Amino acid sequence: MSRTIMAFDFGTRSIGSAVGQDITGTASPLKAIKAKEGIPNWDDIEKLIKEWQPNLLVVGLPTDLRGKDLDAITPRAKKFANRLHGRFGLPVELHDERLSTAEAKADLFSFGGYKALSKGNIDCQSAVVILESWFEAQWGE
User: Fold this and answer.
1) Which residue numbers delimit the YqgF/RNase H-like domain (predicted)?
2) What is the mean pLDDT of residues 101-125?
3) Which residues does 89 contact at the CB level (< 8 Å), separation at least 6?
4) Can you say whether the dihedral through the CA atoms of 28, 32, 38, 44 is positive or negative?
């Protein structure tokens, strides 16, 4: 049975979102949700969850290149994941997002050049990269 999975690229000013099906292992960007000091517009997130009815939420976990927590952002991403679970009662998994922003920028640039590199596009493409990487990890590739 196919599950719908929604992923978030947490940021203090903007949170990228993407959705995908585990049967295809592919994801599509949704929208960038504005945040103030890491606190999102929860109404926007609720609308996405109501529209897509995900079975699982995946939150990108920011770490350094060695996989160590980043003092400023890692605990906030974990708190965001906990709040998602608390508000919506859906299972939430954290997934290592090392290099997702760099990969997202490269993907966007290859599709649309510099014009495609807006902050919202990058955040949502980062969420796509996080989700597709999560799918790959599930399949043990």
Assistant:
1) 3-104
2) 57
3) none
4) negative
Q: Any idea how long the chain is?
A: 141
Choose the weakest-confidence range: 15-19, 27-31, 66-70. Answer: 66-70
Tokens of 12: 């203090």
Q: According to the model, what pLDDT value does residue 98 have?
A: 62
Domains of the chain (ranges; CATH) run 14-36+49-56+67-110+117-140 (3.30.420.140)
Q: Which residue bears the tokens 């508000």?
A: 87
63-89 confidence digits (pLDDT tens):
766 767 677 778 999 999 999 999 999
β-pairing verdict for 4-9 and 56-61? parallel
Amino acid at 96: D
Tokens 């709040």 correspond to 83
Q: Tell me the C-alpha distance between 123 and 20, whole Å.
A: 16
For 63-126, the DSSP string reads B-TTSPBPTTTHHHHHHHHHHHHHHH---EEEEE-TTHHHHHHHHHHHHHGGGG--HHHHHHHH
Which residue in this structure is represented by tokens 């995908």? 20
